[in-house]
Amino acid sequence: MAIFGAVGALVAAVALPAYAASKPTDATAQTVQQLAAVDAQSLVVASEATAAPLVRGAFSATTPEEIEKKKAEEAAAAAARAAAATAAASTRSSGNFNTAGYALVAPGSGEVRYPLPLGSWNVSRTVGGGHNGADMLAPAGTPIYAAASGVVRASAESIGGYGVAVMLDSVVGGQRVQTTYGHMLYGSRQVQAGQTVAAGQLIGYVGSTGRSTANHLHFEVWINGGLVEPMSWLSVNAG
């Protein structure tokens, strides 16, 4: 019995530590569970990632009074720009036009006059090939006269390729006659739209504005809506 008791004690002493070593403790089990829970909800973010800054847009909340003030400021700025452009155009012009030796009224009489002083010009080309008038070469500053009495239809510092130009509506011999005077000097126009002019009246000075490469008067004549050759019309009608 003593022997059996000693053997049993020996077996128990050997088996119990092994059993104890194989069974996880409560502390170990809790740590594993915690790790699993943390793993299940973890998120890996690259180290280079940064938060994008929020940039405020170019807008602002304003009251109706501020909006009206802003509109007034913009209108004033636009008016200032227009005034500056007008001043620049005036600066570009000579300002003084030497008409020594030229009459300020076209010579001759009758309903039709030559638009430039006699002897001051020569024709470089006339109607044809898409060109609607006669180019009368003359020195810059040569006075330009109304070829017929009538009403100024247009007068501006820039009318398309004509540059500084004046356009007249007249009635000659019962026919509607429209005449155009193009490429004048900046600031040289002597008449405004709506004004009534007489035949031979000074309306401007020869220049080279718009689509022009030399000082000359581009002179057009339209009768009852049809284009005519200006020099032939002048030679027949100008007194």
What report would you give on this structure?
This protein is α+β, with helices and mostly antiparallel strands. 31% of the residues lie in helices and 23% in strands. The longest helix has 29 residues. A hairpin with a 2-residue loop joins β9 and β10. The strands form two sheets. Strands 1, 2, 4, 5, 6, 7, 9 and 10 form an eight-stranded antiparallel β-sheet that branches. Strands 3-8 form a two-stranded antiparallel ribbon. It is built from four helices and ten strands, in the order αααββββββββββα. About 15% of the residues have low confidence.
For the CA atoms, what is the radius of gyration? 49 Å
Net shape: elongated
Helical proportion?
25-40%
Distance, first to last CA: 167 Å
- Write the H/E string, N to C: HHHEEEEEEEEEEH
Low-confidence stretches: 18-29, 40-50, 54-59, 87-94
What multimeric state do the chains show?
A: single chain
Strand count = 10
Please tally the helical runs, counting DSSP H or I stretches of 4 or more residues. Answer: 4
Structural class from helices and strands? alpha+beta
**How large a portion of the residues is in β-strands, by DSSP E?**
15-25%
* Main pleated-sheet profile: 8 strands, antiparallel
Mean pLDDT: 79
